[in-house]
């Protein structure tokens, strides 16, 4: 059984790539409490997030990074993954989930009392980090983060907790769909102990 983790604990595990909104500096507390590899967002990129590939029948598009995401983001994630993830952690995400497992996860999340108003979608993304091919479930919220927060406070944390209790210690993605822009923007790439990517600028985007 995976121990559930609260938002403060997740923030302490943000030792991967952390995107700050433009002109925002990391707080002193962040540098004291963790060894976060801070990537200040000041460049533009339109590259695919970790060479993402989707099933042809996917209902949602590939992930779109912020326009001001750093050019070397994928490389920074790869370096952290290779240096910090154990072999077991890597192997946990190298076996794809079946369609039955994905459907069961979606049903479980959407029957959670606090999450059911979000009408979450679940699919699976194939990512490439170094020589490893990873199969990562995407927890997709069909609205922007600010809209989701009005329905369920700390919804991303609650989704992560609920999903990891079902999946065990494997990577997952939390992403929000902007219908006006027709883009799917990732907020988290995380397992129960490590965060490879966190975009907290979405929390500031009202």
TrEMBL record:
<feature type="region of interest" description="Disordered">
    <location>
        <begin position="23"/>
        <end position="42"/>
    </location>
</feature>
<protein>
    <submittedName>
        <fullName>Uncharacterized protein</fullName>
    </submittedName>
</protein>
<feature type="compositionally biased region" description="Polar residues">
    <location>
        <begin position="27"/>
        <end position="42"/>
    </location>
</feature>
């Amino acid at each position: 059984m995976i121990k559930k983790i609260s938002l403060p604990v997740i923030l302490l595990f943000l030792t991967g790539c952390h995107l700050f909104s433009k002109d925002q500096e990391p707080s002193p507390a962040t540098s004291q409490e963790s060894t976060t590899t801070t990537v200040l967002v000041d460049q533009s990129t339109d590259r695919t997030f970790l060479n993402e590939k989707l099933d042809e029948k996917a209902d949602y598009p590939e992930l779109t990074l912020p326009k001001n995401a750093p050019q070397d983001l994928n490389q920074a994630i790869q370096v952290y993954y290779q240096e910090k993830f154990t072999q077991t952690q890597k192997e946990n995400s190298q076996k794809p989930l079946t369609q039955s497992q994905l459907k069961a996860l979606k049903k479980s999340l959407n029957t959670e009392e606090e999450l059911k108003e979000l009408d979450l979608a679940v699919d699976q993304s194939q990512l490439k980090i170094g020589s490893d091919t990873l199969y990562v479930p995407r927890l997709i919220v069909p609205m922007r983060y600010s809209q989701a927060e009005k329905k369920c406070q700390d919804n991303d944390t609650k989704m992560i907790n609920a999903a990891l209790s079902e999946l065990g210690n494997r990577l997952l993605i939390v992403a929000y769909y902007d219908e006006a822009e027709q883009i799917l923007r990732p907020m988290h790439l995380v397992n129960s102990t490590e965060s490879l990517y966190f975009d907290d600028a979405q929390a500031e985007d009202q």
